[in-house]
Design goal:
Elements (H helix, E strand, L loop, with lengths): L1 H19 L10 E5 L7 H7 L2 H5 L3 E5 L6 H6 L5 E5 H4 L8 E10 L4 E4 L13 E4 L4 H13 L7 E4 L5 H4 L6 E4 L3 H7 L3 E5 L8 E7 H6 L1 H20 L1 H12 L11 E3 L2 H9 L9 H14 L5 H8 L14 H13 L1
Parallel strand pairs: 1-2, 6-7, 6-8
Antiparallel strand pairs: 3-10, 4-10, 4-11, 5-8, 5-9
Helix pairs in contact: 2-10, 2-11, 10-11, 13-14
Length: 342
């Protein structure tokens, strides 16, 4: 009996000592980050495979979305911690300040394309034709700019709602031309179709942003800093060692190396971000302020976003850009002036 009591006392003492012992640091969950088959997003895979996230002390869990449209509601519902979105697609999904844009990751400078049947020789030939585009997204504004270049109006064509990933197989039965990007452009070209317009003709119109949940920014600022440091290191690595970067992307994505190209995409550095935010209000799409207003006008005109909500949500673009990521006081003063002017 005495031995049983001693045993019980020892067990209880062990429980008490364990409770009083210094706690181990709680391991933070990985940042769940959305990516799609878009060249700018592939930097995420380079950083993951080359160990840059681990090096800077942040765990990251990439999540592939085969259809980019499906990623937006998941981020808005906070099923993801972060993702990459064109500014015009980001503004409408913000609800009660739950999302913030952190960084410009890249600019499309030719990688967004409109492919068409070989019989279509010029933009003017699109009159009366069916154009596939994901309506309500940045792609629709991109197509409008193409029509504007050709002297056509939206009423001169029939817009068909279709995802960019499905454009190659939709020509010619469902559409005559459509907005897409690599690797889907190459698949369309292999079928005998051609590129008739690209974002090289609309410089600065399509900036991609790293978007994060506001709660993550507030509660895990060190992880955000680490993510950005790893991202910028991956950008530099990709520029210096493109073959090794492509190998990393192929390994984690399942794509063939020949399908992987950064042609037509300008990967943004910290300096590029400062330049984009320093022009207030700016007179062209080299200013993120000017570009954001283009999308706000587009969204309001198509009644996709109430004017007051669009204006309010656009403020979410730069509030945490520097304040929460320690990118420097000079950068913050530039961004703060832009933010306060909205």
């Amino acid at each position: 009996m005495l031995d049983r009591c001693r045993l019980l006392i020892l067990v209880l003492l062990g429980v008490v000592l364990a409770a009083c012992a210094p706690g181990r640091p709680v391991e933070r969950p990985p940042l769940r980050v959305e990516w799609i088959y878009w060249p700018g997003d592939w930097i995420l895979l380079v950083a993951q495979d080359q160990g840059f996230f681990e090096k800077h002390g942040v765990r990251v869990e990439p999540h592939l979305y085969e259809i980019f449209e499906e990623a937006m509601p998941d981020l808005a519902a906070e099923k993801m911690d972060a993702g990459f979105f064109v500014v015009g697609d980001f503004v409408p999904i913000v609800k009660n300040d739950n999302l913030r844009a952190v960084f410009i990751t890249d600019i499309s400078s030719g990688a967004d394309q409109v492919v068409a049947r070989s019989e279509i020789k010029s933009l003017r030939d699109l009159k009366g034709k069916r154009i596939g585009v994901n309506l309500g997204t940045f792609g629709e504004l991109f197509v409008y700019k193409m029509l504007e270049r050709a002297g056509l109006r939206p009423a001169d064509v029939t817009l068909i709602n279709i995802n960019p990933e499905n454009v190659p197989q939709a020509i010619p039965d469902q559409i005559d031309a459509g907005h897409t990007w690599e690797p889907f452009t190459s698949r369309a070209l292999a079928q005998g179709h051609q590129v008739i317009f690209s974002s090289a003709d609309t410089p600065g119109l399509i900036p991609d942003l790293l978007v994060m949940r506001t709660q993550v920014l507030r509660e895990r600022p060190e992880d955000v800093r680490a993510f950005l440091r790893a991202w910028l290191e991956a950008v530099e690595f990709t520029q210096q060692y493109p073959d090794r970067a492509i190998a990393s992307i192929a390994k984690l994505s399942g794509m063939k190396p020949e399908e992987i190209s950064f042609e037509g995409v300008q990967l943004y550095t910290l300096e590029d971000n400062l330049a984009a935010f320093s022009q207030n209000p700016g007179s062209d799409t080299t200013s993120i302020y000017y570009t954001t207003n283009l999308y706000i006008e587009f969204l309001i005109n198509r009644q996709s976003c109430h004017p007051s909500r669009c204006q309010s949500n656009s403020r979410s673009i730069v509030h945490f850009l520097v304040e929460r990521t320690s990118l420097g006081s000079k950068a913050w003063s530039v961004c703060a002036r832009w933010f306060n002017s909205l």
